[in-house]
Amino acid sequence: MATPTSNIIDVNELNKKFKDFTAVNNISFDVRRREIFAFLGPNGAGKSTTIKMLTTLLDPTSGTIKIDGSNPSQNKDGVRKSFGIVFQDPSLDDDLTAYENMKLHAVLYSVPSKTQKDRIKTLLEFVELWDRKNDLVKTFSGGMKRRLEIARGLLHHPKILFLDEPTLGLDPQTRNHMWTYIKDVNKKEGMTVFFTTHYMEEAERIADRIAIIDHGKIIANGTAATLRKDTKTKSLEEAFLKLTGNVIRDEEATGVDRLRNARRRFGR
Amino acid sequence: MNTLYILWLRQIKKYFRSRSRIIGSLGQPILFLVAFGFGFGPIYQRAGGGSYIQFLAPGIILMGVLFTSVFTGIEVIWDRQFGFLKETMVAPVPRFNIMLGRTLGGATVATIQGTIVFFLTLFIGFRPYSIVNLPIALIIIFLVALLFTSLGTAIACTLEDMQGFQLIMNFLVMPIFFLSGALFPVQGLPKFMENVIKLDPLSYGVDALRGALISGNNNNMGVDILILFVVTIVLLLIGSYLFERIQV
Fold it and tell me: Do B86 and A80 touch (CB under 8 A)?
């Protein structure tokens, strides 16, 4: 059974190897209960692989993870109940309506049927999609889909919310709105937030603590203030660049990463 | 139970929302029924086989079922590409239930599709032997649908994208259809053909459905249904094993 400790996530000497490529190289970190934790790193640094291991989608090659006291590779369902996640790529069913997507999630997470309706309404109203609840998701813009995913991730009142680049492609209004609400849930319900982002000012402004991963290793860990102090820089962005370098390191990336980088760079 | 129902419902809703797909996948069986039915009808009659449309209709109904069910099974690949699979993969629900729910949904969709083909065959001149047997026919259709949805799902679990889809159509689904005795009587064929047909699970579906729909010239229905049932269970188990191992 889960024993409530001060850490809701405990990662110890975690490794993930894909054939001869080491995506995550012996990382250890912890996230405290009720904390907002930012996980930063350049493309292909190992962020998504780490999130996948934390969220039971990938088994680690070695090392241990504890999520709210449970090990994701042993007690998958226990861990799955405890978190909500907004993936980097959309994960909605485009052929269903916004409401149906929410309803499906509520059933998968055994939200009591009495509370389903109210909760879905509250959340859809918050993300300003209530009047579009009966529209098919395929008619939604990228921002609307993202808002819907966030609403869905909160539906089962998770203890931890994982957000993988949640604000990518959102306008500043939506972004602020979203963070205001997430911080609100964080305060009121004590929900831990674990997020990745490429917007450094966002991490600086919102996160209580920050870890920076590069080449599969954690190279810095602490509050924004300590990171700035340790690197003798004025902003997190400068600190990040100082730690990870200015160069886009294609040569050191694997074929897949190269492709992914190329897609990202040319795709935008 | 709720999980099964909601995933089942999802498949049904998606089916009724894609009218073009419903109509599109009816085209092929109708074409086969008209072209083969009327094309070979006279020769079949002269050879002493009786009405070819009568003989052909059960096979064509199952053709509709086969294509629809393999396709709905393979939709797992779409879910993977469009990301929805991830949503179900992190849900605190046994993956077997997820796979079973969607497979039952796919099988229901294929059964509906088969039923529509059945009604269309009536327009072309097919007359079932008796109405009493129709519930049995429906069960056979559902069993065949479940079998091939499970097969489609199992295959989809091993594929990353839709690239392999054409390969599956040409080297699996087409042979399953053509080598099932859906188009021709299986008696008196060369030995190797007979053996191939025995390996094809659709053969038992076709044989059983003929037994249920046209006057009882064969009485292997019980054995046929048993074989379909066993193969379905095996494929469901293989499918759930592969589905468990999907990493997204």
Answer: no
